[in-house]
Structure formats: structure tokens, C-alpha cells
Specification:
By secondary structure, this protein is mainly α. The protein has nine helices and no strands.
């Protein structure tokens, strides 16, 4: 569990550091003249907006380039980190077998997961465009457009959740059986088909625990904000951050426990093998029984 938290939080810390440094470097490229500083210091909304428009004018291309670069860097970092972290945790969880994993299939599997996330993001933006084209002329048009966008986005992200869960489960069969990327996906589908009740029970149990933990944490955060706002407002942000970190740690522990439950079910199954089955030889004659073929004489 600590290993799972370590690799996840290390990646998140590195990601936020990369985003912060990239944003700081982007701000350094913005030209700020003395007139812009004067307009900003005056504090009038109209003058401030003019100064900001002048400062950010022509910087959209640099911002787009920075976003593309940081996304590629984070995707590559996540693929490598997730592959090594998942191999380390599954080697411990798969106690009934001798793991014989390979790094390349895990890299390919996490590359598919990263590409699937990018496809979901692009599909969400496409839903915004489609909803804009469907804008009717009636007065209730904003509500209709929002319903179209929310409906399409819900379908997109539900599909992403299901496929991402399948790909994350496929890592078990890469580490356990030494499967390749697509062979592990096939093995995961067969595993779900043969153990549907067990997989459903594990998913429902840990999903319910996660929902209860999220709701309880949300109410506790609201209660804490209401109390600390009256006592000392300076303690609100640190306390809320500590509670959030504890909830995220608990969510990672739940994920590890759920993965351990899946591996416990998989340990009861025979290992899948890509080698062809040996053809049985001719049946041996039973003692005291003569052959059915005719004998000479």
C-alpha cells in the first residue's frame, strides 16, 4: 500500500512541479510595458482589462505549444512510472504464482491508457462543438445545449472509466502469465467472463466504500470550514489540505485492496499459456485385454 501511494504521489508532485515551472516560464515571455504597469496599478476594471489584453496579445501560440509539450512530457512520465509501480505491487500481490513479467507489454498497456484518456478529452471538446452547432433559436436554448453537452460527456467518460478499468486489470495477466499487451486484454476479458459474480462483488463492495468515504469526507470538510471560519480563518486552508490528502491516501489504499481482491481470484485460476496443447498419444492397452485388431492364425 505504501509503495502504491509512493509512486502515485511522486508522479503527482512531479507533474505539479512541471506545470508550475512551465507556467512561470510562460509568464516570463509576456511583454509588460511601463504603461501596462501604470494601468494595472490604477485598479480601474476597464484599464486593467486593456492592460491584460495588451500583455496577453499574441501569446496564444506560445501557450498552446507549452500545453502540448507538458502533456507529452507528463504522458511519457506517467507511462514509465505506472508500468514500474504496477509491476512492483503486483509481484507482491500475486503470491500463488511466480511472476515472470516483462516491461514492454506494461509500457504498451499504459500507452493505450494514456491514448484513451486523450481520446476522452478530445471527445469532450467535440461534444462542446456539437452542442454549439445544435443551438436552437428558442429562449430555452442554453439549457438544451447544456443537456446535449452533459449527455454526450457522460457517455464518453463512462466509456472511458469502463475501458480504463479493463486495461488496468489486464496488467495482472502481464505480470502473472508474461502475456503481451493485447493478449493480456483478451485474458482479462476471459477472466471477467468466467468470474463475473466475484468481480462484480469486489467492484460493488469497494465502490460503495469509496462513495461513502467521499460523502463523509465532503461533509467533514464543510463542517470543519464552518467551525474554523468562526475561530481562526487562517487554519481553514491547511486543515482542508490535510483532510484532502488523507482522503486521497485512503482512496489509493482502497484501489490496492481492490486490486489485491482481483489477484486473489486470479490466483485460484490456472495460468493461461500461449503454447499449444500436446496431442495425446495412442491409448495404452489395458492389462489382460487383447487388441481389437485381428491376429494372424
Amino acid at each position: 500500500m505504501l509503495a502504491e501511494i509512493a509512486w502515485r504521489w511522486s508522479f503527482v508532485a512531479a507533474a505539479w512541479a512541471m506545470i508550475a515551472f512551465t507556467f512561470a516560464e510562460y509568464l516570463r515571455t509576456l511583454p509588460v510595458t511601463n504603461l501596462d504597469l501604470i494601468l494595472l496599478r490604477l485598479g480601474y476594471p476597464v484599464l486593467v482589462s486593456q492592460a491584460l489584453a495588451h500583455i496577453f496579445h499574441g501569446s496564444a501560440a506560445r501557450l498552446a505549444s507549452a500545453v502540448v509539450i507538458i502533456f507529452i512530457a507528463l504522458a511519457l512520465l506517467w507511462i514509465v512510472t505506472a508500468s514500474l509501480g504496477r509491476a512492483a505491487t503486483l509481484k507482491v500481490l500475486l503470491t500463488a504464482t511466480d511472476p515472470r513479467w516483462r516491461l514492454r507489454p506494461l509500457l504498451g498497456l499504459n500507452f493505450l491508457r494514456a491514448g484513451l484518456f486523450l481520446a476522452a478529452v478530445l471527445a469532450t471538446f467535440s461534444a462542446m462543438i456539437v452542442a454549439g452547432y445544435a443551438f436552437p433559436a428558442e429562449a430555452a436554448a442554453p439549457g438544451v445545449v447544456m443537456n446535449i453537452f452533459l449527455g454526450v460527456s457522460f457517455i464518453v467518460w463512462i466509456t472511458w472509466v469502463a475501458l480504463n478499468w479493463l486495461l488496468s486489470l489486464s496488467a495482472v495477466f502481464i505480470v502473472r502469465d508474461g502475456q503481451d499487451t493485447f493478449g493480456s486484454i483478451t485474458a482479462a476479458i476471459d477472466f471477467i467472463r468466467h468470474n463475473a459474480l466475484g468481480v462484480l462483488a469486489v467492484s460493488a463492495t469497494f465502490g460503495a466504500i469509496h462513495v461513502v468515504a467521499f460523502v463523509a469526507t465532503s461533509y467533514f470538510v464543510l463542517f470543519t470550514i464552518a467551525i474554523l471560519a468562526q475561530l481562526h480563518s487562517g487554519y481553514v486552508l491547511p486543515v482542508v489540505m490535510v483532510i484532502t490528502l488523507l482522503y486521497l491516501a485512503f482512496a489509493d489504499i482502497l484501489y490496492t485492496l481492490r486490486l489485491g481482491a482481483y489477484t486473489a481470484i486470479a490466483d485460484r485460476e490456472p495460468e493461461s499459456s500461449s503454447a499449444p496443447a500436446a496431442h495425446p498419444g495412442p491409448p495404452l492397452p489395458l492389462p489382460g485385454v487383447s487388441s481389437l485388431s485381428p491376429q494372424p492364425g
